[in-house]
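Case study B.
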Amino acid sequence: MAKQKSEASDFLLPEEKRQAKTMYRMRAQFLERYPHAVTLVKGKRVALCGESVTVEVPGSRHKPPEVLTVPGATQAELKHLLEVDGHPMIEKVEE
Amino acid sequence: MACALVPLSSVQDCVPNEGGIVKSYVCKLADITSATVTTGVITGFTMASPGLWQEFEYDRDATANFNQVGSLNGNRFTIEQTAFLKFKGIDAAYIAAANNAKDCCDIVAIHVLSNGTRLVQGIEYLAATGAPTGSNNRNTRIVPTINTDTAANEARMEFTIAGNSNTFTQTTDLTDAAIEAL
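Model:
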């Protein structure tokens, strides 16, 4: 009788198989409506979508136009926004 | 908000009492997607995109002010909130700014008081973090006036930022740098 090919997960304990990866992300309905949303986390400007956002800001009498690039929020920053600030636009998901 | 009374003493509390406002930041209400509130103070804003707060640096000649006047109509309490800002001189840029500002239907302003306190005009009091709502009874809008006045006085543009709310404005602890970083 041929041996069945083993999967790597066959060697994991049941509790290890059940461990899911926790992710923090912007809720879909807000991501669709505000794809460039930004906020401050500990004084640092971040984009809630988790990816870098670039926008052009028009100039004025006092300052020239500029292109602003905002880094995406890291998982730690999104976690802070949800669990410390209670941010309504962030959710925690298990993958 | 429920009825609650607390003891007050301006003698013992000695709250800084310098009048007037010195600077303001404004944006459209629609630009704010959420406000973070910690023990009644707005500690952060989430903006629809970066660079939306605009700074108003007006004349420092003891004319700028922000007043909130409560009134009762029968048993109905409302608050008329009015800020007055003056910009000396008149030119094409000011006229363009006035024409554009008058068309904004719902704005939010952060006024920096002479005593350092920062008041947020244009949104009802937020008890917890969430999306802010504009002044409930009448939208907060900018009403520009452009006066040449006479040769004995100065030509000027004046902005009146007016709205009518059910609650007094909240404070924010955001610094100039934080607001400008949003």
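The first strand of chain B starts at residue 21 and ends at 28. The remaining cases will be described in the next quarterly update.
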